[in-house]
Design brief:
2,3-Dihydroxybiphenyl 1,2-Dioxygenase, domain 1, 18 strands
């Protein structure tokens, strides 16, 4: 089964951003490169912060959230599945190791997806909080991106999609059994929508907010999100990456399967 296990950032100061996530979300450092790249984990995901430099040679070099990575059981079968979906699809070798996948492919809007079969270096799995359980795209055609993840990787469409269809919206919501993948239209008049193309934001499930939210409020912007299906708050890290924080709502990670905070039913939120 394919699983999202990796999220890559381009950073102006990888050390500062890594410190932020270690301090506020208890991520643990797995290692770093001689170029200043740092990989952290929540016990399941690898979050890699690449120190910005021109030799990275990415087609898109904007600082911020860049691309995700997916673990698969069989690399060759994945290549076959990808080329059935797109016979002209590019397959580009990556360095592997802690900071990269084995190779990358590209979705229908040319956003890279790293692929690996080794968990992106996360050897010991931990089920702990906070944990990352949500990634959201802004796409020109959400349906095409949704079809890519379902047909190439076998992700399932979750029930949240129908709720948005009932409102006349083209948003798609998928699950891989561990993570919710939301695909929103870039051109979007929904209140609170932020038009950043590609990976727009990601989200953590947390076990309490009484300390976390006031602490974040002291150093970064944070706002309540009562009208959203998953998050209670939206924060921004020191390099303006958008972070959803879910305590009472949880994330729909597969068909009729939600990942919820243990104390969600007893939850009380903090005013911001």
């Amino acid at each position: 089964m394919a699983r999202i296990r990796y999220l890559a950032f381009l950073c102006t100061d990888a050390e500062k951003i890594a410190h932020f996530y270690k301090h506020f979300f208890q991520l643990k450092e797995m290692g770093r490169s001689t170029k200043g790249d740092i990989s952290l984990t929540d016990g399941f995901m690898n979050l890699t912060f690449f120190q910005f430099r021109t030799e990275l040679g990415e087609p898109r070099m904007e600082v911020g959230l860049h691309h995700l990575g997916i673990e698969v059981d069989d690399l060759e079968k994945l290549k076959e599945s990808y080329l059935r979906f797109n016979p002209d699809g590019l397959i580009i070798q990556e360095e592997g190791g802690l900071h990269c996948g084995k190779f990358r492919i590209f979705d229908p809007e040319c956003i890279p997806v790293s692929v690996s079969n080794d968990g992106f270096g996360v050897k010991t799995l931990e089920d702990r909080l906070p944990r990352m359980r949500h990634i959201a795209y802004n796409a020109l055609r959400p349906g095409n991106i949704g079809d890519f993840y379902m047909k190439v990787f076998g992700f399932r469409e979750v029930l949240s999609t129908q709720k948005w269809r009932d409102r006349g919206r083209p948003n798609r919501f998928l699950g891989d059994g561990h993570t919710n993948l939301a695909i929103h239209p870039f051109y979007n008049d929904n209140i609170g929508h932020e038009a950043r193309y590609g990976i727009n934001h990601f989200g953590f499930l947390v076990d309490e907010v009484a300390k976390l939210v006031p602490a974040l409020k002291k150093i970064v912007p944070i706002a309540a999100r009562p009208d959203r299906p998953y998050e209670d708050y939206r924060a921004r890290d020191p390099e303006d990456n958008r972070i959803d924080i879910s305590f009472t709502k949880g994330y729909e990670i597969d068909i009729k399967k939600w990942d919820m905070a243990p104390n969600a039913n007893k939850a009380s939120l903090v005013d911001v």
